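S., here's the first fold you wanted:
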Amino acid sequence: MSGWKAAAAAALVGLTLLLAACLTPTPPTGQASIAAPGPATGPVAGPVTVTEPPTAPPSRAYVPYIVRAFSHPTPTSTPAPVSDLSLTRGPLLQRVTTDTVVVVWETERAAPGEVVYGETADYGSIAADTAIAARHVVTLTDLSPYTRYHYRVTTGGSLLLGGPQDATFRTAAPPGADFTFIAFGDTRTQQDVHRAVVGRIAAEEPDFLLHTGDLVEDGSQDDLWDTFFEIEQPLLANTPFFPVMGNHEGGSSRYLGYFHLPGNERWYTFDYGAVRFVALEIDTVADYGPGSEQYAWLESTLAANERPWLFLFFHVAPFTSVEDLYELDVRAALQPLIERYGVDLVINGHKHSYERNMVNGIPYIVTAGGGAPLYYMAEREPTQVVFVRAYHFVRVAVSENQVTVTAVAVDGEVLDQFTLTK
């Protein structure tokens, strides 16, 4: 490394450490940031066994974060001529199935667009949107299940300025195949932290992503969405993305315009491998109680499940150790359905921490450490197993008969791990 590069790298490390020190708050006197394991209420329901690791949870109060550079593989594809047309957003991967995926991107001005793709960096296939438009939504079809594809977006055969020379994605796994996904949330502020979390997630190379809401601070502001997509771009270009709305999206029409999700896009379901995933809009805006459209849809969707595993994800958590009266309403409305229809795992955000509660044998996890200021524990839930005040994400490894859930801090430390076994 040349002298000026070494000096620049050293300066970046020093700046990163200074930022981490400045953003690390001092816990109030007498407030713990991690709780010891606690009992679940009631017996373990159904045929699922929850196994705890032999080691105790970590005993620290805060996980410092470090900024990591993205590791981009060297493209092996033939370089394409580069257009003078700039890519302004995307590409973004949506609605992946075993044989399809949706690719979304935007350019600075209207033009036709194409996706060239194939199982190698030689591509061999093309899907075109001939409409003269600044926004393109192209569906690739007739793909093979759980297969890695290479692709790039072009206009008139030329690579968009600022676009990836070669990106990849994997189609959805069929029933019986093992896969891994990552859940994270509340990325709305402290964008240096957000960037560090995204960098760590990208290094994991998950098959797809769940976002538990509060993507941005104010869903009505275009500049905040610009920042979100700029930070997330290296991840979203290579990993299908399934978000839900949080209270900071505020039912935003911009959210619905940027993303192309299943169903009505506010609440939806999709199958991946041995799991049925059910996404809800529990954001303090939408109605979700008995008698509502969303509640009726949820009950029919849970009742119709035929997959071995059933996962539910939404923003406002029904069980947390951070005070919030709204969660009691969510609990009253949804817990009966969750238990009646055998939901195996509930994934939430909203409370800026990591927490796991075990309620009648069902794990409820809060993953809200994507960048928003961290919360302290207020009053411990009697069902609480682990609470850690840390920036983090959650990795979930799924096989047909076993699910391993691991909470990972942005510096790589394991915060919590447990296994569900059918």
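And the second, which I think is the more interesting of the pair:
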Amino acid sequence: MPNELDPPLDQSSDGQTAAAERREARRYPFICPVELITVDGSTRISARTSDLSLRGCYVDTLNPFPVGTRVRLQITKNDQRLEFRAEVTSCHVGSGMGVLFEQLTPPQMDIVVSWLEGTSSPAEPPLPAITSTAVSQSAPKTNMHFARKLLKVLEHKGILTPSEAAELLRELDS
């Protein structure tokens, strides 16, 4: 099964790629400078991100770190600098690496959410505002409403087909 942070795969005719591309956290195009420093401080890579999710990012670099490498990650976007620990979860020599964030603090989560909200195009409805405290304290009814709204946005953006969205909505109702 592909890793959540692997780069997008080419579409196959048998539809297996679409199923393999489903991930726990939606990735959004997100290009900005990033620095990765091994935890022991022995190696530093300056690169750029190509996408971002609430769980990690993909870093474009010709010489990625091996899978399992723990790093300090520094992302800078619009005068905001976010630093946290992460682990390399996929490695593609000549292309890049997938990085999974370790536990984000509530302020870090708020910054990532604000960056993701900024990825919506002006013609699209923005992502619903969520904060780390709202996520942890929300009631099941609110979560269901959020899930339905999110599925509609993903369908509208063409990320989900109408049949995929309908199937997921049915699963929510069951």
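Why I say that: Helices lie at 16-20, 106-117, 132-137, 140-156, 162-173. The longest strand covers residues 80-92.

Talk tomorrow,
H.
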